[in-house]
Write a structure and sequence with these properties.
77% of the residues lie in helices and 0% in strands.
Length: 298
């Protein structure tokens, strides 16, 4: 992997890590599910007008949109709105990696290697430690909701694998067409039209302008720029070389939350975070057997 691509991979991790700060700002103004609907609607309109169809089966696009888009962000936004710390959310969401491995084994009959099982066990141990810590602070529900968001992301990953799009960026952009309608409907039921209207009518306030800036970052920087760069890197380099860089996302998210929001994780949470990252890394690496040495002179 060229040095330029390594720097780009680090840049994407930074952009995605800061994305959680932008989400935090957005939720200061908009109801959580309504915020998710707006986040995808802003991308969906220009996608329909200007982006070519990704040439995949509709059921896989729907599966990706409902899993990665609707489920993940509905659970994540509600979790953060109900008390999930911003930095911790960026870490717990990485549970999507071991979830994807397990779901791939169950539904796609993909082989799970011993080191992947070991990585999953490590990640689960870290998550359990964090959940135990959160339960002591009466914040277990946001933790569970974030894990459900990670599980939804994993189901979306299965649809992506089955779709096998020729242009992953077009596929990702068209995925944004799926979530707005179900999320708007869910918001109407859970949050009500009055809350939706109030969040729009007060956009001129300082909190509203801050939220608008956060939403702009999520859409343009986190989604368009970040996903575009990541897709380019995945096309130029082996997936196993690029994907571990995503482990920098929670490092950035936790650090940025500490600096800008004053969130201070406990020693147990820091240790558990290291265990989770190590487990996800172990589960994402691919080991190949070395060929048997030939009995010849070298």
């Amino acid at each position: 992997m060229p040095a330029r691509d390594r720097l780009l991979a680090v840049l994407v991790a930074v952009l995605w890590g800061l994305n959680f700060l932008a989400i935090h700002a957005t939720l200061g103004q908009f109801p959580p599910v309504f915020a998710g609907a707006l986040r995808f609607a802003v991308i969906a309109v220009p996608t329909i007008l200007f982006v070519p169809w990704p040439k995949v089966k509709v059921r896989y696009l729907l599966g990706y949109g409902l899993g990665f888009g609707t489920g993940q962000f509905a659970f994540l936004f509600i979790a953060m709105d109900t008390g999930m710390p911003t930095g911790l959310a960026s870490l717990v969401l990485q549970a999507s990696a071991p979830f994807t491995v397990l779901l791939g084994a169950v539904f796609l009959r993909e082989r799970v290697t011993p080191h992947q099982l070991a990585g999953i066990a490590l990640a689960v141990a870290g998550m359990v430690a964090i959940a135990w810590q959160q339960s002591g602070h009466a914040a277990l529900l946001p933790m569970v909701l974030t894990l459900l968001g990670a599980l939804s992301w994993a189901f979306g990953n299965l649809s992506t694998r089955r779709a096998e799009p020729d242009n992953p960026l077009h596929f990702t952009l068209w995925m944004s067409v799926v979530p707005p309608l179900p999320m708007f409907a869910l918001s109407l039921v859970m949050e009500g039209p009055a809350a939706q209207w109030h969040s729009l009518a007060t956009l001129g306030t300082p909190a509203g302008l801050t939220a608008l800036g956060g939403l702009t970052y999520v859409v343009l920087i986190g989604t368009v720029v970040g996903s575009g760069l990541w897709t380019t890197l995945m096309r130029r380099n082996p997936a196993g070389v690029v994907s571990p860089f995503s482990l920098l996302v929670p490092v950035v998210g936790l650090s940025a939350s500490f600096v800008f929001l004053g969130e201070r994780p406990t020693a147990l949470e820091i240790g558990a975070a290291a265990v989770v990252i190590a487990g996800v890394l172990l589960g994402s690496l691919r080991f190949t057997r070395k060929p048997e040495p030939e009995l010849v002179a070298v």
